[in-house]
Structures are given as C-alpha cells and as structure tokens.
UniProtKB/TrEMBL annotation, chain A:
It comes from the Eukaryota. Residues 7-86 form the GST N-terminal domain. Its EC number is 2.5.1.18. GO terms for molecular function: glutathione transferase activity. This is glutathione transferase. Transmembrane segments: none annotated. PANTHER family: GLUTATHIONE S-TRANSFERASE, GST, SUPERFAMILY, GST DOMAIN CONTAINING, GLUTATHIONE TRANSFERASE. Pfam families: GST_C (PF00043), GST_N (PF02798). Residues 91-224 form the GST C-terminal domain. GO terms for cellular component: cytosol. Belongs to the GST superfamily. Tau family.
From TrEMBL, chain B:
It is found in: Cytoplasm, Cytosol. It catalyses: RX + glutathione = an S-substituted glutathione + a halide anion + H(+). One of its GO terms (molecular function) is glutathione transferase activity. Residues 3-82 form the GST N-terminal domain. This is glutathione transferase. Its EC number is 2.5.1.18. Keywords: Cytoplasm, Detoxification, Transferase. GO terms for biological process: glutathione metabolic process; toxin catabolic process. Belongs to the GST superfamily. Tau family. Pfam families: GST_C, GST_N. Its main location: cytoplasm.
Length: 224, 219
C-alpha cells in the first residue's frame, strides 16, 4: 500500500461538498488511505475550527497532525508529498497551464454557472451569456485531447470534475440546459470522467443531491 | 532555460510588480513592455485572450498568465538560483496559503479603502488592518516570510507596500501605527535591489490614485 506505518491522513469534508470531493479523487488516484470526517457545516467541529482558523471551511487535509486548507493547495500538497500517479505534469509551462485552468474554474466558470442557479431575470440572462463564453473556452481547451491533462487526468480534470455530476443536477432542478450540443467535447469529457474507475464510486447519492439542490433553489427563488 | 523573456505590464500594477521582483531575484534579462490599458496591444489580446489582463509573461513566445502562476513558473524554470518556494511540501503549502490569502483579501480590501468614504471606508480600513495583522502574525520574528531570504509570500505581498502611502492618505490613517512589524519587514525588503527597482515611487502611486478617483468620480 502507498502509506507507510507512520502516515496519518485525515480529510475534513462534507457528504456533498465539491471541493472536498476533488481531494477524495486525488487521494484515491494515489492510493492513499485516509480517515474521512464529514462535517455538519451548521455545527462545525472544534477540530475543524482549530485546523482552519482563518476560513473555518472544508475541506481540510490533516497529514500527521499538520493541516492544509484550500482545495487547490491540498491537491498540490498531495502531488508533492506522494509521487505516484502525478496530478501535475513535469514541464513548467504545462504546469502553469493546468494552474491557469484551475484558477479559471474557480474565478470564472463555477461562479457564472452558480449564478445561473441562484439568479433570475436579467441577472440570470447575464450569467448565461457569461457561461457561454466560459464554456466555449473550456471546449476549445479540449481540442485534440482526451482529458485536460492530455492522455490521463490531471489537476484541471479534478478541478472541472464537479461538472460531470452537478451540471446534470442543476439542469434537472432548474429545468434549463446549461451544457448542450454546442459543447460536444465537453459533454464527452463529462461522460468519460463520470465513469472513470477512480471517480465513479465517489459521487454523492443522486437522490440526496436532488433534494438538497431543490431546497437550495427554492431558497433562492421563493414562490411569490 | 534561456530564451527570450517579455513582460507585458502596467507600471502601478502590484501583480506586475510580483513578476518583476521574481525575474530580478533570478537575474533574468527581459524586455519590459508597458501597456496602455485603455488601448490594449494586439500582443496582449493575443497572449491573454481569456482575461485580456496584465501581467503576461512571454517565454520563448509562449504566454504564462496570472502573477502567482508566473512567479511559480519562474521559480521552476530557473531552479538553480534564489529559490522562492521552500523545498519541503508542507512549507510550500503554507507559503501558497498565505499568497492565496493575500490575493483573496488585500487587493479588494485595499481598493475599498481608496474608493469609498464614510462608514464604508471605516469598515474597509478595519478589515484591511485585520488582514495585515494576520500576516504580521505569520511573519512572526522572521526577517522575511521566506525565512532568511525573500520567498513566495514576500514577493506576493511587498508590491502592496508601494500603495500603502496612497491608502493612508485616502483613508487618513497610519498603517505603521497598526502594523509596525509589517512596515519594518517592508522596509527590509526595500533594501533589496530586486524589490527597490520593481516598485514605483509611492508619490507616483498616490498621484495615480488621485487621477483614478477623478475618472471614477470618487471624491
């Protein structure tokens, strides 16, 4: 096994949080054994607050008692600590590209798609227009590649991975198509990623997700 | 590792300053190209079509965007001198955490200090100082965030020092009074040639902000 006797790896996350899920994928990819601690974010544990005093958020990875927070930082930490099945390529330019894509997801793609979910009227229209631009870029990025990491999945795949599950859930709850036939490469990638052996058993239960996001949606769009 | 290096930049940009410092620390010769952000060059639009922003580092014709990504790229390519990130993975994670914290907090909070007034400005000043105090805590008794030498967090943060004077004038407060250790750290950094030649004069930044306030119609 990948761990030696002295390794102790804990992951604070929740059952549905997509940022924690990325870390689960990285740990599975490298065959690292860990203890998963699912938090109730309305009642955060003392340990979580101790390990992440600055943001008080999940996920937090604790390796031999030392905490790392912020999912992208955790992914890089995992990649640098356990060398098997690398998440980042060797070439510095390619590494920079993967990091750029990861940042693009966090700052552009994810927020605009989330805004489609949470907003209505003109704000939603703007979010949809912005998402189209962002999705076009992501589609372009996949040209000539099987994954964002090229032959096998890398950092960008793990970071975009939320789409493979959550886009479908959003579309079901909202009743709107977000990733349609304009993005054939992206649709193919989502399908491929969803089914990967390392990924497919990690998805949170579909029914539970629908209930959760349905309730969230009603919060954002209360019946008048 | 050698090959043409070009930096598309804008003189008051803290983000551009980070890349300037990293290049200077490593002793890399490069061509500096000043962009007029109201009239962006073809090269900028071609090299950063997604965000159309500076700084853009172009190495052997290939662009690297986003300042902290550029600093890591520079550290990885020119890995035989002046390391900016530590070699230990946990220490690297800590360095990245604080650089990320600076990105999440300092720019927006600092901006609010000069762009707002009244209650909003008081809140902005308070939050800004709180963030700086957290960073002061992280610095502790070290000479630099990187320990004995300039590191990733130093490079990420020190450019904002060139804007502190402008923030203080606009907000009518003293950052040194609240965070003396941080100012001492900043002045220590300014002793380094790589930092001193990468940061513009603070009066020029203040003039720039006054000009921006006119344009934005902010008193």
């Amino acid at each position: 096994m990948a761990n030696n006797m002295a390794e102790e790896v804990k992951l604070f996350k929740t059952w549905s949080n997509i940022f924690g899920l990325r870390v689960v994928w990285a740990l599975k990819l490298k065959g690292i054994e860990y203890e998963a601690i699912d938090e109730d974010l309305s009642n955060k544990s003392a340990l979580l607050l101790q390990y992440n005093p600055v943001y008080k958020k999940v996920p937090v990875l604790v390796h031999n008692g030392k905490p790392v927070s912020e999912s992208l930082l955790i992914l890089e930490y995992i990649d640098e600590t356990w060398n098997q099945n690398p998440i980042l390529p060797e070439d510095p330019f390619e590494r920079a590209r993967q990091r750029f894509l990861a940042k693009f997801n966090e700052e552009k793609l994810l927020p605009t798609i989330w805004a489609i979910f949470t907003k209505e009227g003109k704000d939603r229209e703007e979010a949809m227009a912005a998402s189209v631009e962002n999705l076009k870029f992501v589609e372009e990025e996949l040209k000539g590649k099987k994954f964002f990491g090229s032959e096998k999945i890398g950092l960008a795949d793990l970071v975009f991975g939320w789409m493979a599950n959550l886009i479908g859930i959003f579309e079901e709850v909202i009743g709107l198509k977000i990733v349609d036939e304009r993005y054939p490469l992206l649709l193919a990638w989502m399908q491929e990623f969803y089914e990967l052996p390392v990924i497919k058993d990690t998805w949170p239960p579909h029914d539970k997700m629908i209930i959760k996001y349905q309730a969230l949606y009603e919060n954002y769009h209360p019946a008048k | 590792m050698e090959g043409a290096v070009v930096l598309l930049d804008f003189w008051p940009s803290m983000f551009g300053m980070r890349t300037r410092i990293a290049l200077a620390e490593k002793g890399i010769k490069y061509e500096y190209k000043e962009e007029d952000l109201r009239n962006k060059s073809e090269l900028l639009l071609q090299m950063n079509p997604v965000h159309k922003k500076i700084p853009v580092l172009i190495h052997n014709g290939k662009p690297v965007c986003e300042s902290l990504i550029q600093v890591q790229y520079i550290d990885e390519v020119w890995n035989d001198r002046a390391p900016l990130l530590p070699s230990d993975p946990y220490k690297r994670a800590i360095a990245r955490f604080w650089a990320d914290f600076i990105d999440k907090k300092i720019y927006d909070q600092g901006s609010k200090v000069w762009k707002t007034k009244g209650e909003e400005q008081e809140t902005a000043k308070k939050e800004f100082i709180e963030s700086l105090k957290l960073l002061e805590g992280e610095l502790g008794d070290k000479a630099y965030f990187g320990g004995e030498n300039l590191g990733f967090v130093d490079v990420a943060l020190v450019p904002f020092y060139s804007w502190f004077y402008a923030y203080e004038k606009c907000g009518n407060f003293s950052i040194e009074a609240e965070c003396p250790k941080l100012i001492a750290w900043a002045m220590r950094c300014m002793q380094k040639e790589s930092v001193a030649k990468s940061l513009p004069d603070r009066e020029k930044i203040y003039e720039f902000i006054l000009h921006m306030k006119k344009i934005f119609g902010i008193e």
